[in-house]
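INFO batch 0412 | record 1 of 1 | parsing
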Amino acid sequence: MSNGVSTESIPLYVKQPKVYPREVKGRFARLRVIAAWSLLGLYYVLPWISINGQQIVLFDLVNRQFHIFGITLWPQDLIILSLLLAMAALTLFFFTALAGRLWCGYACPQTVWTEVFLWMERVTEGRRNKRMKLDQGPWNKEKIARKSAKQFLWITFALWTGFTFVGFFVPIRDLGLRLVEFNLGGWETFWLFFYAFATYGNAGYLREQVCKYMCPYARFQSAMFDDDSLVISYDVNRGEPRGPRKKSADRAELGLGDCIDCLGCVQVCPTGIDIRDGLQIECIACAACIDVCDDVMDRMGYPRGLIRYTTENAMAGKPTRILRPRIFIYLAALLALATLVGLVLTGRDPLLVDVLRDRTALHRVTEQTLENPYTLKLSNRTDRDLSVSIGVESEALSGLRIIDPTDSVIIAPSEVANQPLTIGMPIDRARVGMHEITIIATDAAGNILNETETRFFIPARALE
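INFO prediction complete | emitting tokens
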């Protein structure tokens, strides 16, 4: 004390106690397990699936090609990727406005991988009470063995996750062979260990801290909520005053509500909050508290739903509208974007044609022919071989013909071929100027694959 003022220092950071979520069973727990297995299956299995020798999902940054379920997207298809990202954002807004943080509770990678790491922790260290006792106890043979087993599973799974992540950007089969031979490239090695470390740290140690302090979604979700959004809520009017009692006790005589203050909802919460304190930013809507509370209500002989999915209006006794204008607006926007993506995909040219003029020789003159040399950059955007024939048309010039190539060109799936092109016309039909012409690429059946405009140059000196 100095002049009546305390000089005691106040820490700016308080260490967060470790959260030990308890196992829970119930309908929402089953949904989370189904969602987790489905998403993990997609993540770990998709890179190994191939169609006609092409990996089904591959973001080939080196060759600037994105292979997604048999469709090959190029940098020129950036509009499609942008539309898909916009659809993902609108889907998030739609489900958030409808039922809160469903994404966080069931589909967020942080939630899914944390569940896996928690499962491995339970396998090696036991249930909640045993894990707490193990952490508080001294280091002995049992503790070292259990902790080592857990770390082995965590590290192995994290490395597998990092390897799979790189496999979405590098052909995974080739990556696996080079990994066995210890022949990975520098960047491949970096991203494998970086993503493995991120998985290990986020799902193994940070866990709820990511949701509470690092995730931006928790910060702006309130902008998408309203009083008719479905959220997980504790029924205060029904549950209070809370207090323990025997199953045979008459709660009305005791002056108690339905909540027996068992703390089950707190023990199963992966972020360590008490849902009875009201909706909180840390709540990820996993519904574990609903499952455990329903189980307690069943055992006590009380009606389910003390903790449930409901709306703020319903809790206040006001009319609730789940299907309201903003829901239909989001849904209409989603359908419009999906339709637009479908139209863009179906309207894509199977062959991308870029025409490059030969800058070293804009024209050539033979005895009876004026020629313009070009280079065609032909990109096969399909998953099959294309037999491409080149033709030329022009409204301004007559007599144009393809001098080279005279035969069709075979282009493999996803291949980019550079093809020399020479277009000529009789000198006696030539007119001075830059004339618009159309390069037409057709397949073996005569179907037009692409039409690209360029110019045919006829200088005055060539006609002298």
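INFO post-check: DSSP finds 16 helices and 16 strands in the chain.
INFO record closed
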